[in-house]
Amino acid sequence: IIHHSGGGWSPAGLRGRGCEYVTQNFAPRTDQTGRCSTPPRDFLPISMDTACGSDPPQSKKVCVIGAGMAGLAAARELRREGHDVTVLEQSGDVGGQWLYDPRTDAADPLGVAAPVKVHSSMYASLRLISPRQSTGFTDFPFCPKSGRDDRRFPGHREVDLYLKDFCDAFGLMDAVRLNTRVLRAAMTPARRWAVRSVDLGVGECDGADEKKLDAYVDEVFDAVVVATGHYSQPRLPSIKGMETWRGRQMHSHSYRVPEPFRGEVVVVVGCGESGKDIAMEIRGVAKEVYLVAGSMEAVTPGLSKVLAKHSANLHLRLEVERLCEDGRVAFKDGGGSSSSVAADTVIYCTGYSYSFPFLETGGAVTVDDNRVGPLFEHVFPPSLAPSLSFVGVPRKIFAPRFFEIQARWVAQVLSGRRALPAEEEMRRSVEEFYRARDAAGVPRKYTHEIGRREPTVRTLLRDHATKLLIDSLIVVALIGGVRACSTWTISGRSTATSLAWRGGGTSCWGRSCAA
């Protein structure tokens, strides 16, 4: 099992143990038409028992918070390992972000309050930007189904249906408790976890605060796996005049369809995937749309062509200087020049913040400028491991396969089949990772972006080539467009880690996944 560690990629929990692992055919096999054929072989250890001896696995009572893609991956792996699993999901069905909700936080369109009342940030027209062949679970390919969206880059409903199919195929629904919001998760003196939840009931998803005390459910678990995702709590920029601007302001979290913006002048702040999608969609009904890129580095050749094609009402600006009290938006256009426009609406497509309002750790886990930490391997907080873990924190990865790997590691650590390093060693590993990122000039808010394409990340990998050998190869696969991965043999040694490729076969991974 390969995963990202604080200081690099390594066989999960096997440093210095001399254990050999083989992975085969990371992507599902496809026929000449690009459709799924035989499922891939999973990440398989040559000797499972070499990690922690031959003691029988232990079964733990585990609470998984969230039934989205990461939560379902966690539930499946925990059950496979023999654990007693309960999944708590606040929505009325499984799917997480992929469960489209036409409602928005109408009373709080900026999403200032935490937690937001509506979990999903999905807009109606959203489609995958990575092909379905690279978006399925390793042993449950995301194959087209008759009568459904069979496009290579399907819409959000097809992904949601696929997750329901996965849930049904592995019999997970009996472990899922829907319409259940977790209010508190805290460690007990016995190092178990007290979890308080509330049954929201059908149609009562906004009324948790009005519930009476006798509606609460208090339970104790051996372990908690947090799998709540990170695309719900809006992350807002700091722009002068936001507090007093008289026009409409909202975050993309509250965007669903373009019709409410018909005939308006709209400023879209942010040039990521969502910003470009929303700007293009609104352009069809709005009078004018101004897309704010932040810098020219964000303006790709493809975007330049789109701007030229739709120059009649789609315009590029580089930075918002301030929002004026008279309703105008002032821009910095570079070279000391500026301009302004009278706008009706500003939509902030500026990303999301990690938020765990239910989690009480006494400061052992914090969120600082979107860095959740300290987390060993982006999964375990050293002082609370292994009873507390996180699945799905990393971004810009191959989902759900990355989640599967994380979840399998968690499940096997809890059962005793894998061992974690000592707490101090885990802390040192995380601190080393932070120092390396800082030295490479990677902003703190990108701590969990595994597949960043920035030159600084490539420099980081090059400068630490010996120490991060596996990290280099796997991350380059993620950010460098590697198209084949057949059979890899990875050997952990006490002084070094070696990796050899036994070639053969090609499996196209398609475009990189933007998480």
From TrEMBL:
GO molecular function: flavin adenine dinucleotide binding; N,N-dimethylaniline monooxygenase activity; NADP binding
Domain of life (superkingdom): Eukaryota
UniProt keyword annotations, A-Z: FAD, Flavoprotein, Monooxygenase, NADP, Oxidoreductase
Task of the protein: Catalyzes the conversion of methylthioalkyl glucosinolates of any chain length into methylsulfinylalkyl glucosinolates.
Family membership noted in the UniProt record: Belongs to the FMO family.
Pfam families xref list: FMO-like
Record-listed E.C. numbers: 1.-.-.-
SUPFAM superfamilies membership: FAD/NAD(P)-binding domain (SSF51905)
Cofactor: FAD
Listed name of the protein: Flavin-containing monooxygenase
PANTHER family per record: DIMETHYLANILINE MONOOXYGENASE
